[in-house]
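Researcher: I'd like a candidate sequence for this fold, 299 residues long. If you have to choose between options at a position, lean toward the conservative one.
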């Protein structure tokens, strides 16, 4: 669609903006990975160019801030382009945050850490917006009501309960190394939420014990660690004692790093369905082996 057609349809004009004039979104919670999906995107852009323009926000210093399209911008850089097709929109900081989170949540695979920080940023932006009532409705009571509803509204927008939104936001209290283990699937979501209540130094001590024992806490162990922490009694000896407790399914547990398994899993499979997909793949492979064995026996 050219500029004349966009004007006729009352759509924003698209500009070719130099990549050198575009800055990343501050504290952008979504990771831009140089993986197989990125390779495919780069090849697509080389062949067909940018199909969906990125969205930029003009900055006071004359530069631009990218709101939506970080992966497309990176792909253009890797493809050797100097410019990227972009829609330039005037937005407040909070409007930009909400749009940035909304556009990235459309991705098929979203890591727990990405949900955690994006939900937190978006909820804070929504609360600030709710805290600015119009001149016609400047009642503090109305403002407080709106702020109290922000987590409910966010939950409805992202398809989660308000309690689940709060649980994800709790993950932002984890030290980066523990949060990486959550992204890799080594620490389950609910135990991770409980561990987020530990003090930072306690989390660091737990991380050392995880590395030493090559085991991560179950939900029951995480709850126990949290309880000792709240009572001010969590130290290295207590952590080691709790982590040495044998879990019912400990001997059957197999750890697979999510980042390593990801390249064998279609992009359409969401993060929470990864384990189910792997089990189905193993079941399919087992049936295939059985068929091959039957054929060999029949010869």
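Model: Candidate sequence:
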């Amino acid at each position: 669609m050219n500029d004349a057609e966009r004007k006729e349809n009352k759509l924003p004009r698209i500009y070719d903006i130099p990549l050198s004039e575009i800055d990343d979104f501050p504290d952008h919670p979504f990771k831009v990975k140089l993986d197989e999906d990125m390779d495919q995107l780069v090849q697509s852009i080389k062949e067909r160019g940018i199909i969906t323009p990125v969205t930029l926000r003009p900055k006071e210093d004359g530069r631009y801030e990218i709101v939506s399209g970080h992966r497309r911008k990176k792909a253009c850089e890797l493809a050797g382009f100097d410019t990227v097709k972009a829609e330039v929109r005037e937005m407040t900081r909070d409007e930009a945050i909400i749009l940035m989170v909304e556009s990235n949540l459309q991705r098929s695979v979203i890591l727990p850490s990405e949900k955690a920080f994006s939900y937190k940023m978006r909820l804070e932006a929504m609360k600030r917006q709710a805290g600015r009532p119009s001149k016609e409705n400047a009642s503090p009571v109305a403002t407080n009501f709106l702020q109290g509803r922000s987590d409910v509204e966010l939950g409805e927008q992202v398809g989660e309960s308000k309690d689940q939104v709060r649980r994800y936001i709790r993950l932002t209290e984890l030290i980066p190394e523990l949060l990486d283990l959550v992204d890799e699937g080594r620490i389950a979501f609910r135990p991770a939420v409980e561990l987020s209540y530990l003090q930072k130094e306690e989390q660091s001590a737990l991380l050392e014990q995880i590395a030493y024992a090559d085991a991560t806490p179950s939900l029951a162990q995480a709850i126990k660690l949290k309880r000792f922490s709240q009572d001010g009694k969590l130290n290295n000896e207590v952590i080691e004692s709790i982590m040495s407790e044998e879990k019912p399914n400990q001997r059957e547990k197999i750890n697979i790093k999510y980042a390593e398994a990801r390249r064998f899993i279609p992009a359409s499979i969401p993060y929470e369905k990864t384990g189910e997909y792997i089990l189905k793949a193993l079941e399919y492979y087992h049936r295939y082996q059985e068929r091959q064995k039957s054929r060999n026996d029949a010869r």
